[in-house]
Queue: 2 jobs
Job 1
Amino acid sequence: MNRNEVALTYLKDADDPRLSPYLHVRERDLVGRDGRFLAEGESVLRVLLTASHHPVESLLLAEGRETKLSDLLTNVPEDVPVYVVPQAVMNGVVGFEIHRGILAVGRRAIDGPFGSVAAALEGAVRTVVVLQGITNHDNVGGIFRNAAAFGVDRILLDGESCDPLYRKALRVSVGGTLAVPFVRGGSTEELLEALEKQGFTTYALSPRGAGSVLTEPFAEKRAFLFGSEGPGLPAPLLARLRSLQIPMATGVLGTTFDSLNVAASSAITLFLGCQRSA
């Protein structure tokens, strides 16, 4: 049940125990939040409240933000508290100057909306992204943002990749990690096996790819595998899968560039791959 009139709780004391989930944000980012995550900023909050399967537990707003967000706050369930504090109090609670003045605590849905990778791939799923060993939160957030923009149905992350619900990844994704359903865990081999059983063709992206994203007639059910920057995907994996590259110009500033940042690579690949099939 949603409420038409938002009940706001105004607090003045940074030591109020009701604000404890928001204490020392950066330090708690490093040690985890016991099945919870922190959403920051209006765009992320909008996705959390309107397009996410993860429930929200509470909101914390700097004074003045409640008026700006009045329409969005009508989506907050009746039993979810909305705390409003002076900006200085908010800064003191979180441990730094938080200019957006908008935070929310979400509760991680158990297993996401699926019980397994196989369940995630069932139904009307055509385009999947697979991430191997990507530990940079900016890159993961950027990939999720691109995936949301180009209509990716699912993202599968191996157990070495970082958590998409880490605050920085979530912020960089502009809520994409809440909007695109994902499953995280296991090995790349296990993820590829599940994809194969469901009839997907997996394309491995690499500067050493045998084909080109510009000319590839993508399969109707396609998965795009991206590896970490630096080492990239291992050679045996590239030999086993259909490997693709993004053609590079040569001689730029006297240097030959052979690759892009993985998030940028995902944008180009998904723009082409999500709109074209054999």
Job 2
Amino acid sequence: MRYRAVIGLLALVLAVAGPGLSAHAQPAALVATDPVIVEPMRQTQPVIGRLVARESATIAARVAGAVSNVEVEVGDHVAAGDMLVIMDLERFEAEVALVEAEVGEIEARAAAARAGEMIARQDLERQEGLRESAAFSQGRYDDAVQEVLRMESLAAEAEARLRRTLVAFDLARLDLEYGTIRAPFSGVVSERYTETGEYLTVGAPVVTVVNDTNLEIEVAVPFDRLGGLEPGIEVDVRLAERGDDDADLLPAIVRAVVPVEDPLTRTRRVRMTPSFDEHDEALAANQSVTAMIPTGAARDVLTVHKDAVVNGPAGSMVFVVVEGTAQPRPIAIGVSVGERFEVVNGLAEGDEVVVRGNERLAPGQAVRTGDGPPGGAPPPSSR
């Protein structure tokens, strides 16, 4: 019925306008066409989420001491290894010098103990060489054995003290190194907790650094909407400051569905990795994001390009190119699929429909196809 109503309306317009507008009397119109295709479609539901930093840390003091200088301000960009805070290093340097001197002293003692052990062993060897001679003395031999044991003990003790002092030396050097607090990764200083002259205890916060180039999207998805989500699928997201047009949708890839459910909201956290250029979008941690979460598995649907659909009093219709002529065909459309509409009925896969130049076509008018993809500039009229 809808098809007959559309055809009747067009025929009435042609009859009133006169034979000068007959479709067969008009030259072939230059148009652009696009095929009707079958493609997968996911129904989606908008869910509010936020951007979270994969690297964010409050940097703390690892040694106690007074702050000599704070090298950064809030908002400064820092690279991994950059100095953030310098503590008073004089005490740490003195500790290193003291332990270094102790290392030298104990190394000398250890060397003397090893030399004494060597002399004691040489004396024991001489006593053993006299065992078959009249000059051999059992008492001297026993004394030589005891002297070797004593010197071995002194050498072992000296070696142990040396190892312990070397460890203390390493610790002193670490304290000196930790007196200069550095950025563990690149990012932006978002908070500053100390000033020059303050005394820091071990574990006291110094600054907070947020990596603004390594962000993820986190959304809390209701448990009954998780069926269409799995790692690796692409999800469209929209930044909060952007518009509501489909052109503002940006792609993100699901990285993980966290298997922990919030008992109050009955939601689970889903982490997604942006697959667009983060620098171009000027993203920030905790920025609001709307994610178009699929409500179920994808299904194949018949779709037609949006530019092919002409809306009128009788409903939606398209012009299908049949044997070089434009034939009007009423259709029923469903949901939007990006730049296309779902076709409920009226078309078949492979039908060529006019997407440019269809505004002034007459039923049965001859057409010729122009170059250029759908969505480009309209082709020049042949009239």
